[in-house]
Amino acid sequence: MNDEYNEYLKNYFINSPIAEFEKYLNFDEKKKETAKKLSSILKENIESVLKDFYDFNLNNEKTKKFFHGSAEVERLMKTNRNYIPYLFSGPFDIEYYSEKIKIGYLHFKRGIPNDAYLASLGTLSSAINKIWKTKFSDIIELFEAQSITTDLLFIEVYFTINTYYSFLEKKLVNEETKVKEILNNIKDAYFIIDKNLIVSDVVSRSCHIIFETDIAGKDFPTVFTDPRVKRGDILVLAIKQYFENLFNLESIFNMFPSTIEFYNKTLKLSYTPILNINKKPEKIVICATDISEHIKNQQVIEDNNAKNISLIKIIKQKNEFENMLKTIATKNITLLDCDDIATGKTILHEYKNLFASFGLLHISSLISNLELELLAKEHVEKFNVKEFLSLSCCMISDLLKKYLEENYDILGIAS
């Protein structure tokens, strides 16, 4: 491992003591002792677990591309032949948890996405629980084995994914720093506005690329108050007040928007005042930088992070999640044929809270919009309540079905 990893590992346990994490998870000495007993059973049946595990990984589109040849597969199988029982046997010390951090770092270096990792780990959970079902006829012992398996795999996920994202965020910060260094020396697009609010004939060539039109000599308010330009009206107002010189420059510049949405682009803006000999505003130079791609990439990372957090929560609370699905299936019968607004509102509100509790914000957001639409329409004459609630039920069910289908490899829950 390199210096970057070693430094991260050295600082990790200073900032995140293991004892606090185990206390939070309620992973006490009794559970550790039970886990150690399970380890010996797992070791005796490891070939069965490995078969299920690699049958999935080598035949699944999300995972198989990360295995490069039979030699690597054999090497990984040899490693996991020892590592999987080690998950249960411990010792549960710093070295034990460091192994999980190491896996997260290797996933980051190899570019293995978290959805592929979680799908693989979901299969491992199923393979291990299949062993417990053959070994424990007593329902309490079986539940205890399954519960500890869930705890140990959650620990695996927690450390691995936290490490993965820590290095990903560090990489992003480094890339942003490089971009800022470039932008500090290169003006992507600049134009000058005079007192008459006319764009000067002197504009940079990149203005044509960013604005997709020739803005030279154009009336500034006309160009920037187009309905497709978000926050353009704020920019125009600030420019007008700048030239009116009724307020001090500092307060005016605090009003200037740092970004605007220009048609389909996000533009970062910076401003340079040009004053006359009496220190009065004469012109202003505006520099525009297209940061659309950066915003898009940042959003993708945030969305993926939210998705992974939701999946981890569902894996950790799978029984509760499956009970929620049963509750929704039961209430759907009522909602599909409901003509009472109060009952419909109650069910929609309950659905929204249930989905939000598992981080399925795209579904809870849809329900919020449906609630607002229902609120707006409920007093409209001839409004068909039954049709609206039935359609709402179908929309929610379709979105849930799509989510379960997309994540079946990870959750193992049929839609």
List the topology elements:
Elements: H1 3-15, H2 18-25, H3 29-44, H4 46-57, H5 70-89, H6 94-110, H7 114-135, H8 139-183, E1 189-194, E2 199-203, H9 206-211, H10 220-224, E3 229-230, H11 232-244, H12 249-255, E4 259-262, E5 265-275, E6 281-290, H13 292-316, H14 318-336, H15 341-357, H16 361-377, H17 385-406, H18 408-411
Antiparallel strand pairs: 1-2, 1-6, 3-4, 4-5, 5-6
Describe this structure in words.
This protein has 415 residues and is α+β, with helices and mostly antiparallel strands. It has 18 helices and 6 strands. Strands 2-1-6-5-4-3 form a 6-stranded antiparallel β-sheet. Helix 4 runs antiparallel to helix 7 (114-135), helix 7 (114-135) packs parallel to helix 13 (292-316) and helix 14 (318-336) runs antiparallel to helix 15. The two termini are 42 Å apart.
- The helix tally amounts to 18
Give, in spatial order, the strands making up the sheet with the most strands.
Answer: 2-1-6-5-4-3
Using only C-alpha atoms, the radius of gyration works out to 29 Å
What is the ordering of alpha helices and beta strands?
HHHHHHHHEEHHEHHEEEHHHHHH
* Total beta-strand segments: 6
What is the 3D shape? Answer: globular
Report the span from N to C terminus.
42 Å
Biggest sheet descriptor: 6 strands, antiparallel
Extract low-pLDDT stretches: 182-187
| Overall residue-averaged pLDDT value | 85
